[in-house]
């Protein structure tokens, strides 16, 4: 009887210890789970941001090895509000094709790489509020400006194959003859040579080109549906998404987004502040 009682006591003690240990472990696990991604970033003291390394003026590495550009300016503002310093960033250089994959594979916490928001991408990543918008534009000679689409009826319009401009005019304006080229240089050379009365492309690109070619003007600056450029986070990362949404709203309200635009994009595109998302 005494032996049985002793064994029962030892067993009960072991069960109690196991239960306490399990509770402690569960408590620790729950506590870790309760920490959202923003809190974890603050603990690490750095945020990994995917950015372009060779796409000026949005993201590029300068001769001194420093990340520069419009997206980089926004990234620094985010880091400054997150950590109190604009330097707490690990820039991860990305290409257009791997932006989604870098988020899905957890190589970065945030993408800031001139990322166009599309329905298919939104299925696999979460986009924050946009900070820039783009649309189609039409550039033409200053001495023969095309200011209205109706002027293009029966005329030749230059476009790049497979672009948004190609798709838009092919679908919506069969009355316009399209002359298509593979490369941008071919298309712009054709405009200079007079092989078309105008050229359609992304408006941001056209404004930059017209600035370098003052005999031409983007007389139609916004055509077709606008597309948003926005930051993106991993799918389901609500904490970081909410933080970035608030950051973009604050940068718009306090004028810092406009200041970043004037610093990095105005020298290239000129005073075209309608590129900024409202």
From TrEMBL:
Biological processes, Gene Ontology terms = amino acid transport
Organism source for this protein?
[Haemophilus] felis
What superkingdom does the record give?
Bacteria
| GO annotations of cellular component type | extracellular region; outer membrane-bounded periplasmic space
| Swiss-Prot/TrEMBL keywords | Signal, Transport
Higher taxonomy? Bacteria, Pseudomonadati, Pseudomonadota, Gammaproteobacteria, Pasteurellales
**Ranges where the Solute-binding protein family 3/N-terminal domain occurs:** 46-268
Protein name, entry field = ABC transporter substrate-binding protein
Family designation: Belongs to the bacterial solute-binding protein 3 family.
Is Signal one of the keywords UniProt gives this record?
yes
């Amino acid at each position: 009887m005494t032996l049985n009682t002793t064994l029962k006591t030892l067993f009960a003690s072991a069960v109690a210890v196991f239960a306490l240990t399990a509770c402690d472990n569960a408590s620790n696990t729950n506590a870790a789970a309760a920490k959202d991604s923003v809190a974890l970033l603050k603990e690490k003291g750095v945020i990994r941001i995917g950015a372009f390394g060779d796409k000026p003026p949005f993201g590029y590495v300068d001769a001194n090895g420093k990340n520069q550009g419009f997206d980089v300016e926004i990234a620094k503002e985010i880091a400054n509000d997150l950590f109190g310093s604009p330097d707490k960033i690990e820039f991860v250089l990305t290409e257009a094709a791997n932006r989604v994959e870098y988020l899905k594979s957890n190589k970065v916490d945030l993408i800031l790489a001139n990322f166009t928001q599309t329905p298919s991408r939104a299925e696999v990543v979460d986009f924050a509020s946009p900070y820039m918008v783009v649309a189609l534009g039409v550039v033409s000679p200053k001495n023969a400006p095309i200011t209205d689409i109706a002027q293009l009826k029966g005329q030749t319009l230059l476009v790049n194959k497979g672009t948004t401009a190609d798709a838009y005019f092919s679908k919506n304006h069969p009355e316009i003859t399209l002359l298509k080229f593979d490369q941008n240089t071919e298309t712009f050379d054709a405009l200079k040579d007079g092989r078309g009365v105008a050229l359609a492309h992304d408006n941001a690109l056209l404004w930059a080109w017209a600035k370098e070619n003052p005999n031409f003007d983007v007389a139609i600056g916004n055509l077709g549906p606008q597309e948003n450029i926005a930051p993106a986070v991993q799918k389901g990362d609500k904490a970081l998404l909410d933080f970035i949404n608030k950051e973009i709203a604050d940068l718009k309200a306090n004028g810092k987004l406009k200041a970043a635009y004037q610093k990095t994009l105005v020298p290239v595109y000129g005073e075209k502040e309608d590129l900024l998302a409202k």
